[in-house]
Amino acid sequence: MTVLWTSEAMIAAMGGRPLGTMPQGVSGISIDTRTLKPGDAFFAIKGDVFDGHDFATAAMAAGANLMVVSDSKLAALGRLTMPMIVVEDVLAALEMLGVAARARSRAKVIAVTGSAGKTSTKEALRLALSVSGTVHAAERSFNNHWGVPLSLARMPQDSDYAIFEIGMNHAGEIRPLVKLVRPHVAIVTMVAAAHLGHFHSVDDIARAKAEIFEGIVPGGHALINRDDHRWRILDKLAREAGVQNITGFGEHSRSQVKLLACTLGEHHSSITVKIGGETFDAQIGAPGRHIVQNVLAVLGAVYLAGGDVGMAAEALALLTPERGRGARSTLRHPDGPFIVIDESYNANPASMKVALDLLARSSISGEGRRIAVLGEMRELGAHSRKFHAALAEPLREAAPDLVFLAGAEMAALEAALGDDIPLQYRETGAELIPLLVSIVGPGDVVMIKSSNGLGFSKIVDALTSRFPAEGTSCSEDARQ
């Protein structure tokens, strides 16, 4: 077993009280018994819905080496015999362990925030930096008050680079998290009207994102989208936070990470970038102008973190979109293949426009059609109907052959479109499934986009269950 933490180091970091015979150490940190691996330490965090203490027996059965539990819950655990570290508050103890992980690490640390592109940028950074050293990066979108300390606590001591995604819905949420992470480089991908229901304006969203600059270590770098309308706000707040090294990325003439040329393709993009007086060419394995913008931040961060920019640029040819964030699947209809673009993880006005542009650039074959399946954008507050209706113009520009809409707020878009584009509206995404399954055909390109809470991933799952992936063998079909 590779030891991530010795029991002794964990106890010291958290100020905990050991119970039972402590193991030498643990190989990982878990807060979910469904993904816990033998040798992990299980932290019994009490969440909004579940209390980890209720899963103590499951953690022991899954092979946890020890548990971190609350003193107040100790009596309720009865005669559980596995080793435990008893603390006052389990989440606070996880934060302490994260602080200890950061303190013992010599890694160059990069933090990423923004209204869109955080996870895609994090994954591109993971790929780009892997050619320069060992990389630790948060799993999935672990970017909140428990995900960030969990990702920190999981950081191996010998990591060369570490990447952390930091999200927020409200002002004040980034500040405590970035002070745990203490990045050498902090990236703001872009600022848009995401979570606008919790803010007075997009400028206020920019101010909340700028909290990430407050945790940058002395001598560290702020990496800001120079093409963003809120660049001046971010630049000003970075300086007020004491950041002396501010780097802009984009097409803007004053960008230090400057895009010189860009060719957008259906499946990839080719770019030329100037950084630190040198010019680099890169082919990006994922399509879209938004991915190009993210990659500019990635290459800038590699440069600022001391990585090999040339090798990073070459590595980006292997970049592929993730599930829910642009992943493409070719599925087999009885009469021929069709394509599904899965953008079901999240949606805001800016990312909706990007997804529609991707659909417009996608090639159809034969009598195929471009089909947009759009769910409502959540957390836009009083501005919601206005932003949904405003999608009519980018939809007309993308000119899909069919549009399917779902969610109460999408009624505003239906009204704004009128008879301009053939469309079907339903209250829920589930009601769209039988319509799509019956109408999709060979040569089609189906783009599915919504806020995650609407559950449009189930539409993707329904299509992939009904129509097997291209290249799947008959025996594999049978097993499914």
UniProtKB/TrEMBL annotation:
Residue ranges of every copy of the Mur ligase C-terminal domain listed in the record: 335-451
Domain Mur ligase N-terminal catalytic: 26-96
UniProt: ATP binding residues: 114-120
Transmembrane segments: none
Annotated catalysed reactions: D-alanyl-D-alanine + UDP-N-acetyl-alpha-D-muramoyl-L-alanyl-gamma-D-glutamyl-meso-2,6-diaminopimelate + ATP = UDP-N-acetyl-alpha-D-muramoyl-L-alanyl-gamma-D-glutamyl-meso-2,6-diaminopimeloyl-D-alanyl-D-alanine + ADP + phosphate + H(+)
Residue ranges constituting the Mur ligase central domain according to the UniProt record: 112-301
Cellular component, GO, one term: cytoplasm
Name of the top EC class for this enzyme: ligase
InterPro entries, alphabetized: Mur-like_cat_sf (IPR036565), Mur_ligase_C (IPR004101), Mur_ligase_C_dom_sf (IPR036615), Mur_ligase_cen (IPR013221), Mur_ligase_N (IPR000713), MurCDEF_CellWall_CoF430Synth (IPR051046), MurE/MurF_N (IPR035911), UDP-N-AcMur_synth (IPR005863)
GO biological process: cell division; cell wall organization; peptidoglycan biosynthetic process; regulation of cell shape
GO MF terms, alphabetically ordered: ATP binding; UDP-N-acetylmuramoyl-tripeptide-D-alanyl-D-alanine ligase activity; UDP-N-acetylmuramoylalanyl-D-glutamyl-2,6-diaminopimelate-D-alanyl-D-alanine ligase activity
SUPFAM superfamilies, per database record: MurD-like peptide ligases, catalytic domain, MurD-like peptide ligases, peptide-binding domain, MurE/MurF N-terminal domain
Localization terms from the record: Cytoplasm
UniProt pathway: Cell wall biogenesis; peptidoglycan biosynthesis
E.C. code: 6.3.2.10
Keyword Cell division: yes
Keywords: ATP-binding, Cell cycle, Cell division, Cell shape, Cell wall biogenesis/degradation, Cytoplasm, Ligase, Nucleotide-binding, Peptidoglycan synthesis
Top-level taxonomic group: Bacteria
Any Pfam family the entry gives: Mur_ligase
Family under the similarity heading: Belongs to the MurCDEF family. MurF subfamily.
The protein's role, per its UniProt record: Involved in cell wall formation. Catalyzes the final step in the synthesis of UDP-N-acetylmuramoyl-pentapeptide, the precursor of murein.
UniProt protein name: UDP-N-acetylmuramoyl-tripeptide--D-alanyl-D-alanine ligase
